[in-house]
């Protein structure tokens, strides 16, 4: 049975994270994975090239040797295993899974806060502290998105949860209640 790329990404990312924790190298591995992600963004299609069965092995080996030259230890070994099993095209999913587990380990939640106008630095910091506390984390990192349609208030999306405190939502709820009252009369 062939596994889908998301399952593969989760399994490999989880395995690397657990090993990095065991060896007390989670921070170093994370930093190296960030540089690896940058390379993948700078060279789109690199994973596909390294996983392409139509290329000669020596051609892929040349590229792979250049890629792993700047890595050592756990990340280098990890890359060699991923390459050996022709999964280099799933590497970004593996990095995402590692990062998710790394952030969770550090009690950091990532998300967005949508507002009608940009938050000040102080408001943004206060929002991050409030969200972290509400959701049981030590820290939150929220990206401020601007959406004039929410009119006012905030919409927070983090950890697969949505907290909608927008005026738009409140107006919509009032409209729904008024429509219910009209239909009852």
From TrEMBL:
Location relative to the cell: Cell membrane; Membrane
Main location: membrane
Membrane topology label: Peripheral membrane protein
GO cellular component assignments: plasma membrane; proton-transporting ATP synthase complex
Keywords: ATP synthesis, Cell membrane, CF(1), Hydrogen ion transport, Ion transport, Membrane, Transport
Pfam families: OSCP
Keyword rRNA-binding appears in the UniProt entry: no
GO molecular function (one): proton-transporting ATP synthase activity, rotational mechanism
Function: This protein is part of the stalk that links CF(0) to CF(1). It either transmits conformational changes from CF(0) to CF(1) or is implicated in proton conduction. F(1)F(0) ATP synthase produces ATP from ADP in the presence of a proton or sodium gradient. F-type ATPases consist of two structural domains, F(1) containing the extramembraneous catalytic core and F(0) containing the membrane proton channel, linked together by a central stalk and a peripheral stalk. During catalysis, ATP synthesis in the catalytic domain of F(1) is coupled via a rotary mechanism of the central stalk subunits to proton translocation.
Family the entry assigns: Belongs to the ATPase delta chain family.
Protein name from the UniProt record: ATP synthase subunit delta
UniProt organism field: Enterococcus rivorum
């Amino acid at each position: 049975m062939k596994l889908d790329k998301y399952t593969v990404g989760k399994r490999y990312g989880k395995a690397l994270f657990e090993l990095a924790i065991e060896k007390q190298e989670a921070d170093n591995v994370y930093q190296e994975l960030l540089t690896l992600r940058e390379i993948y963004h700078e060279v789109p299609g690199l994973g596909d090239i390294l996983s392409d069965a139509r290329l000669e092995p020596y051609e892929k080996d040349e590229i792979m040797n250049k890629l792993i030259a700047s890595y050592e230890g756990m990340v280098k070994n990890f890359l060699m295993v991923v390459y050996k099993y022709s999964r280099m095209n799933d590497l970004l999913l593996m990095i995402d899974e590692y990062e998710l587990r790394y952030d969770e380990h550090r009690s950091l939640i990532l998300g967005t806060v949508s507002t009608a106008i940009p938050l000040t630095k102080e408001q943004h910091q206060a929002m991050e502290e409030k969200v972290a506390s509400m959701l049981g984390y030590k820290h939150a990192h929220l990206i401020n998105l601007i959406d004039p349609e929410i009119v006012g208030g905030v919409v927070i999306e983090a950890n697969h949860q949505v907290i909608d405190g927008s005026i738009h939502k409140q107006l919509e709820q009032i409209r729904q209640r008024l429509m219910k009252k009209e239909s009852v009369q």
